[in-house]
Amino acid sequence: MNPKQAPVADPYFPRHGDPRYRAHRYEIALDYRPGPNRLAASARIAAIAGPEPLREFTLDLADFRIGKVLVDGRPAHYAHRDGKLRVKPAKAPAAGAVFTCEVHWSGNPRPVRSPWGGLGFEEITDGALVASQPTGAPSWFPCNDRPADKAAYQLTVTTATPYAVVTGGRLLSRTTRSSATTWVYEQPAPTASYLVGLAIAPLRQVPLAERAPGTVPQSGWVPQPLTARFEHDFARQPQMMRLFEELFGPYPFDGYTVAVVDEDLDVPVEAQGMATFGRNHVDGRRGWERLVAHELAHQWFGNSVTIADWRHIWLNEGLAKYAEWLWSERTGGPTAQRKAADAHLQLRGLPQDLAIGDPGKRHMFDDRVYERGGLTVHALRCALGDTAFFRLLRDWSTAYRHAVVTTDDFAAHAARYTDRPLGPLLDAWLHRGALPDLPTPAAPLEPSGAVAEPRPGVLGGTGREAVRRFLKDRGT
What we know:
Structural class: alpha+beta
Oligomer: single chain
Largest sheet: 8 strands, mixed
CATH superfamily of the largest domain: tricorn interacting facor f3 domain
């Protein structure tokens, strides 16, 4: 996306966010009491005004009691209703100026309403979790709730000592005083507001990989009774990480954390440097390993490389879906071609009236966006051949690391890897309802390489050299 392009409102959620400024850093402090579900909090937001003096601006925030609002340290006039905190500074920040806004709020956090049910901060049986995609972040903190407005975050959470606090980023400190513990996390990478994850629950930490130079730190936070099942189900995640680094480029964050809550969840939830799974996703049989791959792949596709607005959601979900197929292919399961055929058969039985390149707000989480998105990626692989295709994927995630993108950006990027015009292919898959024929490669796709099982007692195990040899043999 052109950095000089003036930001505009998200067409699917025009009431969310304020394009007149952009956030640079959030420093959020929460005091949360799980029993009464009571929150007292403050946030200091460093931001940059747009091309006009900022005489008024808005933050998205749900129904809380506002204590005070300061801009550059001075009390500001404000009004708070219908999920919007409207702020009038005593002195308007000049065009392009850096300014700070400080907000204090309190109340009982709860999910915000949406066409997909409640989103955001939610009580669970013992604790709370945050699942904000796409517009749930205002359920617990004031923010410029636009996916394109990415910022650094520091999150300080004080809660009862038996509870762990889990979020993405690096744990800076954990301090216990009396019956409360304060956890301080730092996420320096640019982060969209919907990708700030949080779990507060009685969990224990489980390391997922032996620490070694050059490896990504990985761990799980899991209810004690689920530890053995978790260790089995997530044992191959370190190998998955290594393979995805080979295919998609270096992992874009400081580490990766998986939280498992003692609650059934419809689907896992990705966040920046983190994913949250329900107890129903940990069955001791790796029955949900495709979702482990899907959520990990989002760290590249969706979290680091972030869509400019929700029209482009296929870029997140189609690439993460294809990562599932690649993991299956590389571990001796069904090939990507077989997965594509299954998805194509499924889509043939569904209405063919959805253009996934702009599916509309109502259908942005439709299964067809995911499955047809994966098929779109596979169609590119078939058209380009493996060598060019995997170079395209890796270059996409590295060239646009921590950036904001659109479908047009992806199309322009893909065009650099072939002399063949890709416009008709992408138009058919992304912008028309009728389902194209099943994509088939002009030449056979390369055979899969096996990933070894972890050695007993060693999470992550071996197999890295096998993967490296396979990729080297393929010439990628």
